[in-house]
Amino acid sequence: MLFSKAFGRLGSIVGSSPLKYFVASVVIFVLSVLLLVILPPEVRLSFSHGYTTPDAPSIRELETHVDFFGNRGKPWYMALFAEPRDQDKGSMIESNEFEEFKKFYRNIKKDIIIRAERDRNFTYMDYCGNTCDINEQVFKTVALSWFGLQWPETSIFMFKSNIGKFFFLRDMKGRNIIRSRLAALYFMAFVNGTQAANDLRDYEAKVANWVAEHNANATNLLTITQHSVRGMEMEVARGMKFVLAKLLAGTILTVFVTLLSLVLLNKNYGRSCSRVAFLALAANILPLMALVSAMALCSVSGLHPNTVTIVAPALAYAIG
């Protein structure tokens, strides 16, 4: 009831001087368009901010990593996931599958040249620092586990190794892993400058090419999937293009059906079709004008549109 009365008063105010408020809306819209031309919004499709709360478990884990390694810069992550192509019999704890995964991992760590400068070739090993060996634990554990692997901790004599984050989709017998249909290996570095950030993005792209080449080889035992910021951004962009095309087609179809329905109804009841068509067109344009003005306000205030911001206008337009 509170909002009903408030919007009722607002409607009365606008209705008392419709021309004045219409002109004001057009002026604001034109200014918004000019602002967007002068200060185009910077679209950010990253996943660093705006998707989780500051106290989320993933954020706390990230802060723990940063503190543990001495706060050396902004953390960068990438992961490889491998699954056996033979889903019925293959297993990531078998020697052939695991060795193929380990060999691929070590090759892309040392053999991919990210950048060449004078007589020096830069590889991932030049950026990972203290994190270069974060997967060596699982390699040693698998090599020494003659009596099988336990999950989440495998005991080898007096040594306990936590392998919980390396093997997934497990078939278990008690604490013993009988079979695993998915394994992961991780990459981590700390970015201290623009050059390092650009180099690691290039590294992600080159790893993607190696992954595609590996998966195209039918003789390999594994299918490898890369998980990285760049890969996610590319997938988000591809998905947005697909979704926005569908939404645009749906919006055009909705407007057409609405106008056609109004014309047929008003012809049937003898009303002025041109006036109703104009009002219907205005009802569809006004939400669009409001969205453009809101985008201009965000651009001026320094807010950066993300994936949700870009998709949301279609929903807002439909509601409006």
Explained architecture:
Helices cover 57% and strands 17% of the residues. It is an alpha+beta fold. It has a four-stranded antiparallel beta sheet with strand order 6-7-1-8. A two-stranded antiparallel sheet has the order 2-3. It has a two-stranded antiparallel ribbon with strand order 4-5. It starts with a helix and ends with a helix.
Structural class: alpha+beta
The strands making up the biggest β-sheet line up spatially as 6-7-1-8
Helical content band: 55-70%
Distance between the termini: 20 Å
Based on CA atoms alone, the radius of gyration comes out at 28 Å
Question: What's the helix count?
Answer: 10
Based on CA inertia axes, which overall geometry fits?
Answer: elongated
- Quaternary state, please? single chain
The overall strand count is: 8
Number of domains: 2
Task: Give the biggest beta sheet.
Answer: 4 strands, antiparallel
Mean pLDDT across all residues, rounded? Answer: 82
Q: What low-confidence regions span 5 or more consecutive residues with pLDDT below 50?
A: none
Give the amount of beta strand, in percent.
Answer: 15-25%
Series of H and E elements: HHHEHEEHHEEEEHEHHH
Protein name: SSD domain-containing protein
Keywords: Membrane, Transmembrane, Transmembrane helix
Transmembrane segments: 20-39, 242-265, 277-297
InterPro entries: Patched_domain-protein (IPR051697)
Q: What's a quick, concise take on this entry?
A:
The chain is an alpha+beta fold and 320 residues long. It has helices at 2-16, 18-38, 57-68, 95-110, 125-128, 136-144, 194-216, 229-269, 273-301, 307-319, and strands spanning 74-84, 115-117, 120-122, 153-156, 159-162, 167-173, 176-191, 222-228.
